[in-house]
């Protein structure tokens, strides 16, 4: 089997070295439309389309920067691009190549190229509207406090500015139907699941794990050991989903363990301690109590401890 370098894959996809993921997706969409066998009647169309998909999948996974081993001028390919993984990509591409192009456009593979961008563009649009409108809204409220006419004049003065900035920053038309269709697709995609579970794991780690009387080093070990074991096992088996299982599923199981331990806690006991208001959001309890567990003495917001001199904790005995 012929192994190709990063620069060769870039040439196949028609992107420069250093191209972003968005650039890769755009290039793939454009070339797939031209090379798909349903539209391209050349004898080599089938293999050209498979090679295009192979190049796209490789560059998305490994990036577009060429790596050349030190002390040698010989090009190299990423060793993590296993033969089995590459063959899986080529088999999927072969399946896509035998479809009608309209059916190919409806596959998760192709729709995924658009959906995330559509959702991101719409979220960015509304966020920009909010950000650009914040200052005018403040000015309008100030002038409106003086008189109705002052507020109306401020509104007229700000409207062209808001419209110009929005159209300059985001020159696209809103499409609610496409937005909700993309949301529906993403709700069933593995990338969306990966994102949701990652947020879930981080939330449990901060709100439950750090609030449990476990040394931070032990807590990290409880999370990292399953991740490392899963990564090693899936790598040895050349599992193409090793990232998902290692950094998503493995910590999720640990998070569920901590959730169950927390939810089914019994025998609540309250303890009250004095503390000196610090300059940061981390407090030091009297007699350095629980100093070894920084998770319960750290607060995200300074308002939670501002103006206070004591704190009451409610401890429960966990299920495990």
Describe the structure.
With 320 residues, the protein is mostly helical. Helix content is 62%, strand content 5%. It has 11 helices and 2 strands, in the order αααααααααααββ. The chain has helices at 6-13, 21-35, 45-62, 83-97, 101-105, 108-146, 148-169, 176-187, 190-209, 216-236, 242-263, and strands at 266-274, 310-317. The radius of gyration is 27 Å and the shape is elongated. Residues 69-76 have low confidence and may be disordered.
Structural class based on helices, strands and sheet pairing: mainly alpha
Number of strands: 2
The major pleated sheet works out as:
2 strands, antiparallel
What fraction of residues sit in β-strands?
A: 5-15%
What global shape is seen?
A: elongated
What is the ordering of alpha helices and beta strands?
HHHHHHHHHHHEE
C-alpha end-to-end distance: 53 Å
Instruction: Identify the strand order in the major beta sheet.
Output: 1-2
- Give the helix tally: 11
Radius of gyration: 27 Å
| Unreliably modeled segments | 69-76
The amount of helix comes to 55-70%
Average pLDDT score: 77
List the helices and strands and how they pair.
Elements: H1 6-13, H2 21-35, H3 45-62, H4 83-97, H5 101-105, H6 108-146, H7 148-169, H8 176-187, H9 190-209, H10 216-236, H11 242-263, E1 266-274, E2 310-317
Antiparallel strand pairs: 1-2
Helix pairs in contact: 1-3, 2-3, 3-4, 6-7, 6-8, 9-11, 10-11
